[in-house]
Design goal:
Layout (H helix, E strand, L loop, with lengths): L1 E6 L3 H11 L9 E3 L2 E5 L10 E4 L13 H5 L5 H6 L5 E3 L2 E4 L9 H11 L5 E5 L12 E6 L4 E6 L2 E6 L10 H10 L5 E5 L5 H9 L4 E6 L2 H13 L6 E5 L2 H4 L7 E6 L9 H6 L1 E14 L3 H14 L4 E13 L2 E10 L2
Parallel strand pairs: 6-7, 11-12, 11-14, 12-13, 14-15
Antiparallel strand pairs: 1-3, 1-4, 2-3, 5-6, 7-8, 9-10, 15-17, 16-17
Helix pairs in contact: 5-6
The site of S-adenosylmethionine has 21 residues, from helix 6, strand 12 and helix 8.
């Protein structure tokens, strides 16, 4: 086979030359021989610092990344392939497979294909129900790979250990967490109500100059993960997590905050009295809700009225769509400022 033969010290130079000329055979890996190296070529050209030779041996094939479609060809019909959602949620090394009912019979085959297609995936699970109960947890079933539901997720410069069934977590909210961190100003004291395994407190602390971030979580298992995650990220000097019900934990707090984050979309507004009680004048509140697109303005108006009834005046600065719950229904964050 045609090849450029050079000393190892010229390897990078020769490779760049071959790439620039478009003559490097990309299907083959280079072969080393003592202090020399062979690069397979697809056309004969003169190469500076190398001899062009015809080798007797054949070069090893470069492994091409295989796509899900290639792996499922022949196992799923073209119509079935079209039904497969193109984006799936990856939490740490676990892929959470979302597939329509029509493909249920083939879920194991699909799960195995994802394992093969991505070397970062060790386990594929499917959701067995939606988030329910006060802890907002859900059941998942392992379909393929390592039988585990615990993983370490990497996001916005932090590591987060969590269990998919015992703690709430959504990788899809990563950019929203970073948005809040980027709004946080130097020296702020931040309260995250409903902090779960601590993704918000850690992302805010890591990506802002907040003086201190506090989290409060009711679920004892999520709280235990949160404590471990604070240590894992070496943020124990700037993050404190409390365990318990915000209704009991917030009133006795001796401090007031520059920013309060309320990531409990179904019922968050029921806890506005607590957020307002500990928010400084001029503080920011981020309140989450699941809303139909057509209801967003009415919801903002309702929230302002709730605050007024509680004796506070707030300004809604922004209504940010930060995720899709179902067709037409969004996870929306109201960014508010406490005026008085
Ligand atoms: C939607 S999850 C959000 C968790 C976390 N902030 C995240 O983004 O991954 C809501 C969390 O609030 C917690 N929670 C519900 N009611 C609570 C309460 N009254 N006091 C404290 N935490 C509560 C649940 O256990 C759950 O972990």
């Amino acid at each position: 086979m045609l090849a450029a033969y050079t000393e190892l010290k010229y390897a990078e130079k020769v490779k760049q030359f071959l790439l620039k000329k478009g003559v490097l055979h990309l299907d083959h890996l280079p072969v080393k021989e003592l202090d020399h190296i062979f690069f397979a070529m697809n056309k004969k050209v003169a190469v500076p610092n190398a001899k062009v030779v015809n080798t007797k041996f054949s070069f090893p094939e470069r492994q091409k990344p295989v796509t899900i479609d290639e792996l499922l060809k022949g196992k799923l019909t073209a119509k079935e392939l079209e039904l497969l959602p193109r984006t799936q949620e990856l939490v740490g090394e676990i892929l959470i497979l979302e597939i329509p009912d029509e493909l249920k019979k083939k879920e194991k085959i699909i799960a195995e294909a994802y394992l093969k297609a991505n070397k970062h995936i060790f386990t594929v699970v499917k959701k067995s129900d939606i988030h329910t109960g006060q802890f907002r947890t859900r059941k998942v079933t392992v379909l393929a790979g390592k039988k585990t539901k615990e993983t370490v997720h990497h996001e916005n410069g932090i590591e987060l250990k969590l269990h998919l069934e015992r703690t709430y977590f959504s990788a899809r909210s990563g950019s929203e967490r970073l948005r809040i961190a980027q709004l946080t100003k130097s020296g702020e004291e931040v309260l995250v109500m409903f902090s779960g395994a601590a993704p918000y407190p850690l992302v805010i602390a890591k990506n802002s100059e907040a003086r201190h971030v506090y989290g409060i979580e009711l679920n004892p298992e999520a709280h235990t993960y949160a404590l471990e995650n604070v240590l894992l990220n070496n943020l124990q000097d700037r993050v404190t997590i409390l365990h318990g019900d915000v209704k009991r934990k917030i009133p006795p707090l001796k401090k007031r905050f520059d920013r309060v984050v309320m990531p409990l979309p179904k019922t968050g507004e029921q806890f506005l009295d607590l957020a307002l009680l500990k928010a400084k004048k001029g503080a920011f509140i981020h309140l989450y809700s699941f809303l139909d697109e057509t209801e967003i303005d009415a919801y903002a108006k309702k929230v302002k009225e709730i605050c007024n009834k509680l004796g506070y005046s707030v300004k809604v600065l922004d209504k940010v769509k930060c995720g899709q719950f179902s067709p037409g229904v969004f996870r929306v964050c109201l960014d508010m400022k406490v005026l008085s």
